[in-house]
Amino acid sequence: MQLGLAASTVRRDASLIDALRESTGLPRFAAEPAMREFLRAVTRARPAGAKFEGVVVYSPRQLVPSLLQYDAPPFGPSFMALRERCLFTLRVVTLMRGGSAWSVRRSSIKAVCDPIGRPIVMFHYDSKGAAANNMAHDSNYVEHLEEDTRRCDRSLCPAHLLLQLRDVVERLDREEHDRLFTSEIGAALSVNSVRTLMSKLLRRAQVAPVFTSHSLRMSSSVTLKLLGVADQDVCVRAGWHTGTASSTRSRHYLYGRGVRDNFARLLLLPGRDSS
Ligand SMILES: [Zn+2]
Questions:
Q1: What is the mean pLDDT of residues 268-272?
Q2: Which of 133, 205, 219, 255 supports an S-S bond with 66, CB 3.0-4.6 Å?
Q3: Is the domain of 36 the same as that of 137?
Q4: How far is the centre of ligand 1, averaged over its atoms, from the C-alpha of 27 (Å)?
Q5: pTM of this structure
Q6: Model confidence band, residue 59 (pLDDT cutoffs 50, 70, 90)
Q7: Residue ranges of the alpha helices (H) in 4-126?
Q8: 124 and 237 share a domain?
Q9: How far is the CA of 267 from the centre of ligand 1 (A)?
Q10: Residue 2 included in any domain
């Protein structure tokens, strides 16, 4: 403690010592009551620094000019720009982790109508929740910016972009995988590359460096909350449990992730309501 070590460092050292003790046949000591009490005291005495102190969370809209920066008319955006737009709008409106977006199954993407008749694009992916609830996969959707889909701004509409990227990647004819996010020649990207795509966009948009690609979820949820969207709806869309969670509830209520508000309009278009 006199050395001024961070609590996480003390904990790491304790587990390193335990690993050594274990390898020489000695019992572990970090789990003993006195040691547990000591580690709790260290944590109280040395709280972790507030990572986001002094910075204001950015809104997804702030990134749109940088997102639309690379365009190649008259044939629409280049592959890279299309991929970036699709990933960004997908992650923003679904509040998905990078790893979940990476796992989107290309063959599962299809245009359908939701239970109240709104056009959406559904897809399957692997989520932490699906694994925890013993489900083969999770499903989610992206919405069109406009209910009359002919009026959508196709450079920014999450549903149009998802269908467009799927079609482009299908034409690359790589049947050995079912991924959506690929290189220009159709090779599946690694999960880290998918995350890096978003951190590059954040840096290009000059968002404070403390915000990594994971911050997209925070950016969306804070913005939606400030726009008056019910916490419960944000949680349903993001797959976060509210209150007492049960696997039955997650299956029947969170499955499908339908919410009333159009998150795409709220998060991507300036000064619009969601109706
Ligand atoms: Zn659309």
A1: 79
A2: 205
A3: no
A4: 61
A5: 0.78
A6: very high
A7: 7-23, 33-45, 64-67, 79-94, 98-102
A8: yes
A9: 14
A10: no
